[in-house]
Write a structure and sequence with these properties.
InterPro entries: Glyas_Bleomycin-R_OHBP_Dase, Glyas_Fos-R_dOase_dom, VOC_core. This protein has 125 residues and is an alpha/beta fold. 15% of the residues lie in helices and 34% in strands. It has one domain: 2,3-Dihydroxybiphenyl 1,2-Dioxygenase, domain 1, CATH 3.10.180.10. A 4-stranded mixed β-sheet has the order 1-4-3-2, covered by helices on one side. It has a 4-stranded mixed β-sheet with strand order 5-8-7-6, with no helix packed on it. The relative contact order is 0.20.
Amino acid sequence: MKLRLELFVTDVQASIEFYRRVLNFQVIGQASADYTMLTNGEAAISVNKREALGHDHPLRATDGERLGLGVEIVLNVADIEGFYETIRTRGHPVSELVLQPWGLRDFRIIDPDGYYIRVTSRHRA
């Protein structure tokens, strides 16, 4: 089994740029203003315009409602220190890199629509 996330966003192009420039995802096929799939290793995220959801769709957020509330997107990387330093140089706000009590190192970042992302790796002593 593999997991692919579909995010419904306000500005597809801004999301494509974030996932490409900040998190090193690559566009699969042609980028579109309606729907674009991006991958990094085995992680796959598709961005769709919010208007694609019908007005009665259970995922449709109303104006002013925070997207992704109650969801944490977790990306596992091999070199957390290197990935963290790369992201810090790209100018997007990012939390501190911390060692968690459960033995993982991680940092947190928010995408343009407010989706919460935790980037993590096993701590090497």
